[in-house]
Amino acid sequence: MTTYFFGDTRVLTGRTLRHVTRSMDTVITTVITPVAMMLMFVYVFGGAIDTGSGSYVNYMLPGILLITIASGVSYTAYRLFTDMKSGIFERFQSLPIARSSVLWAHVLTSLAANLISLVIVVGVALLMGFRTGAGVPAWLAVAGILFLFTLALTWIAVIPGLSAASVEGAGAFAYPLIFLPFISSAFVPTETMPGPVRWFAEHQPVTSIVNTIRDLFAQRPVGDDIWTALAWCAGILVVAYVFAMAAYRRKIA
């Protein structure tokens, strides 16, 4: 059964990846918003924001990377919703394939598409002056955190992809995720925020993830933030996976 699962997932992932490569406008659309935000914050607001020291593009890039992922996973919900409405899931159920491989194909495609988007955004940031002396271990740590964050958000995207009543509803779940970095340390230090907002900003998942990535890029000790970030990502992933699989079982029952 395990052999069938991996083989079926590989074939179905190839199918969904072909949809992405034949319609690269989805990847381009995903990066337009975060790149536009990066340009606006660096060249319009950056001079008025005091982050202590260093280049502002270095300061805000981690938050932009998380916004890129949040934008990207909305297309996972869209592709999944489209497959559900087209009847392709019913066809797959009639075939001797591992049922969960259908979902995993969409999840793996999300990881691949978001990787392309993140590379483009980092490339634009380099053109805008982003610099880091981080070595290979730090870059691998950043990649690992972004991978886990993407995986967690993708499984969240699976839920509306399976249960939304309309294509607009399938993608709308991403709006709060895109907005969340604005109430964190992603763009301004939390010390500048009023009491209740500061408390929320310092105790929500984005802040610990952003702080960890920022410290890794700046070659500073990451402290406890990395464990908080990993705990948030792992916890969200487990909860989202459980609810997504429950929604999937209800759909195919």
From TrEMBL:
Keywords (A to Z) from UniProt:
Antibiotic resistance, Cell membrane, Membrane, Transmembrane, Transmembrane helix, Transport
Q: Which residues form the ABC transmembrane type-2 domain?
A: 25-251
Predominant localisation class: membrane
GO annotation, biological process: response to antibiotic
Q: Membrane-spanning regions, if any? A: 27-49, 61-81, 102-130, 136-158, 170-188, 226-248
Query: What is the annotated localization of this protein?
Result: Cell membrane; Membrane
**Recorded GO terms, molecular function?**
ABC-type transporter activity
Q: Which family does it belong to?
A: Belongs to the ABC-2 integral membrane protein family.
The protein here is known as: Transport permease protein
Recorded source organism is: Streptomyces swartbergensis
